[in-house]
Amino acid sequence: MIDRAALDEHVAGYAEILLSAGATGRRLTRDELESRKEHGQRAAEAGLALRGLIRLHLAVARETLSELPQGRGVALLASVEQAVDAFAEGYERSQQHAVRREEAARREFIDDLLYGRSDLGRLAERAVRFGLSLSQAHAVAVATGPEPYGDGYPVARGIETAVLSRFAGRQILLTTKDGRLICVAPGDQPEVLAYFAKQAYAATDGGRVAIGRSHLGAGGVVHSYEEALNALDLADRMELDEPVLHAADLLVYPVLTRDRQAMADLVESMLGPLRKGRGGAQLFIDTLAAYFDSGCVATEAARRLSLSVRALTYRLERIHSLTGADPADPRTRYTLQTAVIGARLLGWPGQEE
């Protein structure tokens, strides 16, 4: 049953409009339509359900029919149609504005969360509204694909539906940023990010996912997010082919480049002589990378490079003669391998060849 006491203010003036328009069969005026839109907007802002409001409009129309001259039912229906349509337009317009405001607030929160641009105490308060408790540790996963993704894209919606259905009730935030798919989850629930990675890999047709380490507090989310981004960058520079990367497994690379000048000196000292070889330094660096990545197994390295074992062996011997370091000798292998890693991280030799 309609609670008329709570809803009557939203049909104020409606009966009078029906009586006036229904008696003559005229269309509603601009002012009458605008008044109904305003009532619809206020009803939406009050959080009232549209279904009950429509029933109330129909109830008022039935009551009004008895006050009109006989035979004016068709004219009354025409007036009701115009009035209800205007009311619903105002209601929907208010809802759309509310959705846009909510989207803007969510986007602002996500930007502040991932970049740490807001007061941490205030950020923690806002996080509750979006289902996060920043007093605990969180980890962040970032997924990339062959194209940029935004909130509302089919790929993003599909992943969000799958993750939230699988882990209903968990404190999880799924969003997008700079064309990437992002999942923020409690640090003690690695299964959430693992499932997100699986869904993202499938939905992006073989994209790549990086997972940052778990860190405490609002600043921890930023830290984990940056670790994931750095892992993706490292994967590109190091030509890693793993679909899912864990920042914890890549910590050695930032350590190696912490003193960039020392690393640059090592690279130049060890690999600089390779410029004298036929094909340039990059050819030999690629050869060494394939050799080390295959566990120093010549047949596997040759397969990766589409070479014969004899051709690979010749290149390794040439590297030995140019650098003085034997890739097959454990005593010099580590230094040479470190130099190759450094060359990848520094983008050496780049365009200089």
Automatic annotation (TrEMBL):
Residues 285-340 form the PucR C-terminal helix-turn-helix domain. InterPro entries: CdaR-like_regulators, CdaR_GGDEF, PucR_C-HTH_dom, PucR_C-HTH_sf. Gene3D superfamilies: PucR C-terminal helix-turn-helix domain. Coiled coil: none annotated. Residues 116-234 form the CdaR GGDEF-like domain. Belongs to the CdaR family. This is Regulator. It comes from Streptomyces subrutilus. The lineage of its organism: Bacteria, Bacillati, Actinomycetota, Actinomycetes, Kitasatosporales.
